[in-house]
Please model this.
Amino acid sequence: MSELRQNAERLVAEGKGILAADESNGTMNKRLEAAGVEPSEENRRALRELLFTTEGAAEHISGVILYDETFHQSTADGTPFPRLLEDQGVVPGIKVDTGAKPLPGSEDEKITEGLDGLRERLAEYYEGGARFAKWRAVITIDEHLPSPYCVHVNAHALARYAALCQEAQIVPIVEPEVLMDGGHTIDRSEEVTGDVLSAVFAELRAQHVQFEGMLLKPNMVLAGYECSEQPDDDEVAERTLRCLRRHVPAAVPGIVFLSGGQSDEDATTRLNVMNQMGPQPWEISFSYGRGLQAAALTTWHGEDEKVPEAQKQYRHRARCTGAARRGEYTEAMERELATA
Ligand code: 13P
Model:
């Protein structure tokens, strides 16, 4: 089996999924500030050390996506983060896009940048231990958006990135995120998500990306935050799976959802329901950022003495999400932390 395929399959191993700890410095600083923690390089490092040294988390986490700064940081006692993860059997990954920037000629839409010099950066990250990567495209829904122009250029860039990753023996996670912001209905979300996936797979195919050696990181099909009609979990799961079945080739080994601002419990429950809906052509897993770390960050609050309590929070979310990956998550399990 090729190295790419082997690593893609490792990342979606049974009961495990991915921790997205690849917030850029700007995003991480905002999250630290919101949690009452001073935004500094040392606090960004300390939070990542807290997460990556949580005992037992690796039972549920197959890989961790890092940001460039974190990729080059170490624990307080000097172990580089990529090595710390590898030693626990966790695959180190790297976010390689340089962010979503305004799309010229289409106000209110974004294009993700980062292709310049990517071939050279990928070679360096492989040397440093990275075996998978992430690139996130952002698609906004409103009455008139997304424009076909925005969908096309983002799909093209995602495929350029994915082809370069595979050349470097790095598994690309292809992330076209249709945002939940706004008042759109779930019907509209399903339609747009389908159009975006269809454009992305056409580009991936045109640019010779091997589907067996990549993972897809999509949004779930949800109504906008401000929509007055909110679907129940079964409807989200059914529509999401229907949309994926229509647009994602069966050769792709796994789907790793983003949590995208859903509550921790919603993100876990919906993943669970999808896994209970029987075998699908691909593994149904997770690549959560906020959905795994938010509770730990709030509990930590930048205080050394709170580290064990924060690690307990993270271990709990990793365990619940890992169970949802198998369709075995229950409300009782969710409540266990409170009684522990
Ligand atoms: P969320 O789970 O917080 O959406 O983050 C996942 C991610 O990596 C977004 O790019």
User: Anything to note?
Assistant: The pocket of 1,3-dihydroxyacetonephosphate is lined by residues 20, 136, 175, 258-260, 287-291 (CB under 6 Å).
